[in-house]
Amino acid sequence: MNPVSLQGLVPDETKALLLAPWRMLETDHEAFMVELRELETILKEHQAGGRFPARVLGRLQRFVGNFESHMGSHFKAEEIAVFPHLRRHAPRLSGTLLFLIAEHRVIQRTLSAWKRSFRKNKVRANSTISSTVLFQRGLELVRLLRIHVERENRIMRQFPSKAA
């Protein structure tokens, strides 16, 4: 390959590398909002019942496990790739981006508290437990996540072409 054709490849490859985390986050946010609505529906359906049946507890625990396993890489992509890029190209967002990083920590603590409420209530495969604590902490997590994702989406929509 001659040097002229290589010069054309480098910017395209660089652009693709820079776009990858951005596209991943957009896709994650879309899929996650669907999961979040499902979680909220489950919580609200069982709010009045006073107890969560074992099958519902299993679904809630799977959500926690899936979210927790994915959350670290998602937050890392934002904090290491996307946010620094935005900070360089839109310095006026620095405060907002720092706030989003702080929100990541609040979300992690809220998720940990929700997980503790499962353990504290000794959730077992064939048990039912009082829904008050799980409901309140679950809805708080839903609220925090929804606000956070919507805030990030508003920022991402401002810079669709500047992400790379």
CATH class: Mainly Alpha
Number of separate helices? 4
Helix content: over 70%
CATH architecture: Up-down Bundle
Taking the alpha carbons of the first and last residues, their distance comes to 26 Å
Helix vs. strand class: mainly alpha
Mean pLDDT: 78
For the largest beta-sheet, the strand count, sense and barrel status come to: 2 strands, antiparallel
Uncertain stretches of 5 or more adjacent residues: 1-10
Shape: elongated
User: Would you count the extended β strands for me?
Assistant: 2
Q: What is the N-to-C order of secondary-structure elements (H for helix, E for strand)?
A: HEHHEH
How many domain units?
1
CATH topology: Four Helix Bundle (Hemerythrin (Met), subunit A)
Radius of gyration: 20 Å
SSE inventory with pairings:
Elements: H1 3-45, E1 51-52, H2 54-89, H3 94-120, E2 129-130, H4 131-158
Antiparallel strand pairs: 1-2
Helix pairs in contact: 1-2, 1-4, 2-3, 3-4
